[in-house]
Specification:
By secondary structure, the chain is an all-beta fold. The protein is built from no helices and 32 strands. A 5-stranded antiparallel beta sheet has the order 1-7-6-5-4, with no helix packed on it. A 5-stranded antiparallel beta sheet has the order 2-3-32-31-30, with no helix packed on it.
């Protein structure tokens, strides 16, 4: 592989007057650049390098460039071109969270090929042809790097989870359901290979994949399956237990618990709020902190202690950090993004592997650019 050319992109925006975080606009090229997605953070194991997607096209199904940003030196490079990214709800890149291993499909002249990209070593390896496999690319990767999952439609009237071997490319449908139009597939981190699945009950889509109905009166729920697609275990969240979920959830560290946001506040008898912790062995969710606001996107830290969330209830779309166990929270900064559509106008905040930065999107100046809030020394001691 030829040596990569790095160049500087960085604008120091401000220090937050309350939290003390220093906010940087990391990217500044006249193109749409976003941080991929927040539930499984696509950054290197040391937290320094971030995988980003850059495109000049307004069509979310067109390929773009996989960029890598080095926070320490504020430098950026293009690792590979013509890859399918995450546009308007189209998930086509996958990672095992905080590992630095990114799996992306590259468009060639006559075929599509799955690549393994390593942010830790800045290398790229070709795995196998993606032609004939479902969707534009994978959705999640197992912690041992053996398996990948993709979402698709094995038949016109149903949706499914397709598991494929990352060594051979061979795979099969391991789980099917009429309610998986947007399953948000996530392998559990590090531990036993459980797969988190979002269930959009009563969803409908046309032959082209356009969503006609996202869910019906039964709302959105969650369950997990084992690595073979069996042993379904439901989380006590969504109707009839709680209001429906917002469609944003993630595993908490190495645990069997999941952090999820709801479409309305929920009263667990001790607290009232919409950010809840759930487990398949619990009778009901636990509200993490009291709040009248509806918090939306949520992500946890690699260690499983902390979380980051945003809310669309306030015009500046602020970011909130907190301790999952204690419920102590603190406003970090305002993202100042529009939070409209396409989805790259959403903040999608996440914590880097070392808990030193919060990475988020903002289209405050028109085009979406990637930002980062550098946390001051001793920031987490208050939690």
């Amino acid at each position: 592989m030829n040596p990569l050319s790095w160049w500087r992109e960085a604008i120091e925006r401000r220090d937050d007057n309350v939290s003390g975080a220093r906010v940087w606009q990391l990217t500044s090229a006249p193109a749409i650049t976003h941080n991929l997605y927040h539930e499984q953070p696509p950054c290197s194991a040391d937290g320094n390098r971030l995988a980003l997607f850059r495109t000049a096209s307004s069509n979310p199904r067109q390929p773009g460039d996989l960029m890598v940003y080095g926070i320490e030196r504020h430098r950026i490079t293009c690792l590979v071109e013509n890859i399918f990214g995450i546009g308007s709800g189209v998930h086509a890149l996958a990672t095992s969270a905080w590992s630095g291993h990114i799996y992306a499909v590259q468009q060639r002249e006559e075929s599509r090929v799955l690549l393994q990209l390593d942010l830790n070593t800045m290398t790229s390896d070709e795995l196998f042809a993606w032609d004939g496999l479902p969707g534009l690319g994978p959705a999640t990767i197992s912690p041992d790097g053996r398996w990948g999952l993709a979402a698709g439609r094995p038949a016109p009237d149903t949706f499914g989870v397709f598991r494929f071997d990352l060594n051979s490319g061979r795979g099969d449908w391991i789980h099917v359901s009429p309610h998986l139009v947007n399953p948000h597939l996530q392998y559990r981190l590090y531990a036993e290979q459980r797969i988190l699945v979002q269930e959009n009950r009563g969803c409908l889509a046309d032959e082209a994949g356009n969503i006609i109905r996202l869910y019906d009166e039964r709302g959105v729920g969650l369950y997990s399956i084992d690595s073979e697609g069996n042993n379904r275990c439901d989380f006590p969240v969504g109707p009839p237990y709680t209001p429906g979920t917002t469609g944003h959830e993630c595993w908490i560290g190495q645990s069997e618990r999941v952090l999820v946001t709801l479409t309305a506040p929920y009263d667990d008898g001790l607290r009232v709020g919409n950010v809840v912790e759930v487990c398949t062995t619990w009778a009901k969710p636990r509200v993490v902190f009291d709040s009248p606001l509806i918090w939306n996107h949520v992500a946890t830290s690699r260690c499983g202690r902390y979380f980051i969330a945003d809310t669309h209830d306030l015009p500046e779309v602020p970011l909130l950090v907190g301790n999952i166990a204690s419920g102590n929270t603190r406003m970090l900064c305002s993202s100042l993004t529009s939070a409209g559509y396409p989805q790259y106008s959403h903040a999608h905040p996440y914590l880097t592997s070392d808990n030193s930065h919060v990475v988020f999107n903002s289209d405050r100046r028109g085009l979406t650019q990637v930002h980062a809030a550098a946390l001051p020394e001793g920031f987490w001691e208050d939690f």
